[in-house]
Design goal:
The protein is an alpha/beta fold. It contains 3 helices and 4 strands, in the order E-E-H-E-H-E-H.
């Protein structure tokens, strides 16, 4: 079973999304729904999407992350696979 855990926290200075698991299939749609519903765009507020615990991202997930990045999200990852994917396919 593919599972994605989405944790969102916010402070006056930062909105942070922590993703854990696989960003695939129906989970991409779930993240998109959550992003549209709760993402707050504020000029002086940083938005971070932490992908350190993501193990796989499919093409639809890549497309969504690219859109989130274009909307100002900073995508961070420490794993070699996800870092490479972000640099090659999800960069602004």
């Amino acid at each position: 079973m593919h599972v994605l855990k989405i944790t969102r926290t916010e402070t006056p200075a930062e909105e942070k999304w922590i993703l854990q698991g696989r960003l695939v299939g129906l989970w991409v749609a779930e993240l998109r729904r959550n992003w549209r519903k709760t993402h707050i765009t504020a000029k002086n507020r940083k938005c971070v999407v932490d992908l350190n615990e993501v193990t796989f991202i499919d093409k639809k997930g890549e497309t969504l992350l690219r859109a989130m990045s274009r909307q100002g999200a900073q995508l961070i990852a420490s794993g070699i696979y996800i870092k490479h994917l972000l640099q090659q396919r999800c960069a602004r």
